[in-house]
Amino acid sequence: MSVASIDERLAAAGLPSLPRRVWAEIDESALAANLAAVRELIGPRVELNAVIKPDAYGHGLVPVGRVFEQAGANRLCVAGIDEATALRGAGIALPILVLFPIPVGDVARAARSRFEIVAADRTTTLATLDAWSRQRGTGDPDLLVHLEVETGLARGGFKPHDVASMAMRIAAATGVRLAGLWSHLARSEDRPTTDAQVAAFERATDAVRTAGLPLPPRHLAATGGLFAGQVDHYEGVRIGLGLFGLMPEGFPVGESAKSAFAKLSPAMAVKCRPLRVETFPAGTPVSYGGLWTTERPSRIATLPIGYGDGWTRAYSPLAGALVRGQKVPLVGSVAMDAVMADVTDVGDVGTEEEFVLIGTQGGSAVVTNELARVRTTIPWEVVTSMAYRLPRVYHAGPVLKGLRTLAGESRVGSSAN
């Protein structure tokens, strides 16, 4: 029985056709299941703050934000106010925390949009509080502020001995509420480093209590801290990587987290169909610079993905692609919009054949950890660096749900299709 092509599936779902012969598939059911696994681990009373910066680690900001809202996240976390604005504009109602300081001039917009902001340094925080005192109008909601503690990452936040005084400034400001106390772990897999950061965070917590202030909800653990099992969940956790089924290779998962960890699965696959498949004689240079030359008569498939899509030049000649369940090498230099694959040993591959660059096919797999090793990086950089122009096809199991291209987003059943 023949399997329907991506074009046939999109047409049957009432979605537009692909603008190119390459696409990423985002499994919304995997995203929801990953969130459920984390929820099972932390329990119902701990807030699950879903981190979806930048562009939801390449999976698509708005579509993923909707999935996590429907799946039961308590809050969404982004890096900038523009990401938060895009989520609100798409109708997402969850609380949204902007994890890095916003421009001072945007404070009124943030408060009125019910964005929660961070206090990460004295100068910007005081300027933000002053701007809000001048711009706040009758009937405006409170500005919600999460006070960041510098515990050892050396990136942002107040040192523990300065936390109480800033917390008091925030709590005393009219129309402002201290909504959170948080920090971020630098090496969650390393027990001594993590213990030192936890101790610093606890000193800050004690200082806020001693100052007589109500203790706001605290959140310290991100994915690493949660699955290493070495830190308290406090009142909330901030999970990004785990929700996308991504973890560092060889990460030491704690005993208490192993069951939940086993349920995580990657949500992104990258696929394409070749632009051309051609036979060349031995001795033919392939792609820019002639860095690879055929040693025998060879069938070369031109795949429509390149460094303009986030498929870095480092992937060739060490990475491969799957076709008919068999791994074939990528050869020659990666161009902006194309890379070549040597399919000589696969048989009569044609232009309607589906190649898999990330994901599984016929029992074989190309995983992000493998690609990360090739380019000496981390697996979440692999998916995050996939360019916005790469079309995203959203599905839940076999059922197509939507498509995002540079032209916009279409959803099944939407009048905008």
Mean pLDDT: 96
| Class by alpha and beta content | alpha/beta
Task: Give the biggest beta sheet.
Answer: 12 strands, mixed
Distance between the termini: 30 Å
Name of the CATH first level of the largest domain = Alpha Beta
Q: What percent of the residues sit in helical stretches (DSSP H or I)?
A: 25-40%
What would you say the CATH architecture of the largest domain is? Alpha-Beta Barrel
Number of strands: 22
Give the overall shape, derived from the CA principal axes. elongated
Number of helices: 12
Instruction: Enumerate the spans where pLDDT stays under 50 for 5 or more consecutive residues.
Output: none
Number of individual domains: 2
Model description:
This protein has 417 residues and is an alpha/beta fold. The chain has 2 domains: 28-244, TIM Barrel (Alpha-Beta Barrel), CATH 3.20.20.10; 268-390, Lyase, Ornithine Decarboxylase, Chain A, domain 1, CATH 2.40.37.10. The protein is built from 12 helices and 22 strands. The strands form 3 sheets. Strands 1, 10, 11, 14, 15, 16, 17, 18, 19, 20, 21 and 22 form a 12-stranded mixed sheet that branches. Strands 8-7-6-5-4-3-2-9 form an 8-stranded parallel sheet. A hairpin with a 2-residue loop joins strand 21 (399-405) and strand 22. The longest helix is centred in the middle third of the chain and has 20 residues, at 191-210. The mean pLDDT is 96.
